[in-house]
UniProtKB/TrEMBL annotation:
GO terms for molecular function: ATP binding; ATP hydrolysis activity. It holds the Pfam family ABC_tran. Residues 2-222 form the ABC transporter domain. This is ATP-binding cassette domain-containing protein. It comes from the Bacteria. Keywords: ATP-binding, Nucleotide-binding. CDD domains: ABC_DR_subfamily_A (cd03230). Signal peptide: none annotated. SMART domains: AAA (SM00382).
Amino acid sequence: MLNIESLHKSFRENVILHNLTFTVNPGEIIGLVGENGAGKSTLLHILATISKPSEGSISLNDLSYTTERKKIRKLIGYVPQDIAVWEDLTVEENMVFFEKLSWVNQTKEELRNLCQEMKLYKWKEPVNTLSGGMKRKLNLAISLIHHPKVLLLDEPTVGIDLKSRKEIGTYLQKQAVENELMIIYTSHDMDEINELCNRVICIGKDPFYKDMLLNSGKEIISF
Ligand SMILES: Nc1ncnc2c1ncn2[C@@H]1O[C@H](COP(=O)(O)OP(=O)(O)OP(=O)(O)O)[C@@H](O)[C@H]1O
């Protein structure tokens, strides 16, 4: 379980996150919504151990983010907003490169299966010949190489077609259930949030997103 308690984050006098307390259970997909600048990426950075909170505590399966950062990092998969893959390498070369950087050993066959499960078949193609949707799938596949327990996705489907979106969504739902993965997912697409997520966290001052979800039947947590 991921446990976030009384989390605050400020940049100098600018308070971005104020008193966030929530938990994420194994197998759950949590939507994270809010207007531009509300602090979604800031929260994901903190959960990915890229930055530290100003106050508050976080633990993952009873490991403290303060004292066990190295162990925590092995359990986190993070997909940033910007695609971060090697454009001149093939899909295969990217997967092998990131496998070498990870803490697990996977055969090429296993890496290829991981790509195929999310319907990314262009194994021998250089990344710079792939569509945006394919690149996003590769980014996601890379984040799963080390079998994380928590997957943090910052707008992973932005700018991609509906079919690829659905394929990614179906894959994530399967991963959450089968591997008890905890997923936090940011998106501005409320249909996608409605379809994919078990619960939704709304952050920021603008009530727009919360209002959009009022009749969705979803549990909404707002800060
Ligand atoms: N390193 C930093 N130093 C100072 N301010 C920062 C820093 N990082 C983020 N901010 C500020 O924190 C606020 C929240 O930014 P953040 O990127 O988390 O928002 P967001 O909800 O992810 O927005 P978007 O939907 O546009 O991606 C913004 O006002 C941003 O300028």
